[in-house]
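S1.2 Input.
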Amino acid sequence: MKTKGTCLKFVKVKAIDQIPRYLFEQVKPREFDIDKLYEWAPILLNNPMNLFGAFIDKEELVKGVMWSSFNPISNTITVHVISVDRAYHGKGILNEADGILNKFKKKLGADKIIAITNRPSAGKRVGWTQSKSVIMEK
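S1.3 Output.
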């Protein structure tokens, strides 16, 4: 699926080593351990309830990553990662990711998509609303 603003194409990945580690490292806040992600990747990549893919350029070099999962109990898609190379920041990657996520939502019949972010204004620019729920930690 080719996206418009960044001229990147979104493709599912077959192996986690196709995705440069720095794309995960730059995610802030990051609610997961990158080494554990790499360890569990074969299971995550083969789970039909996960949407795990890369944004690639014309030369098929990976320039971004998106990972989300579907919870059939809550009928909700949770976005874990949307990360793109700094050269593509501000070029519409969130609009493109939003379109891909909405297709995933429709395919699964999910009720909603949720994401944890420290940049709610970016999400609001693409039509997301701030949840009434608050995340608590200990």
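S1.4 Remarks. The two ends are 40 Å apart (CA to CA).
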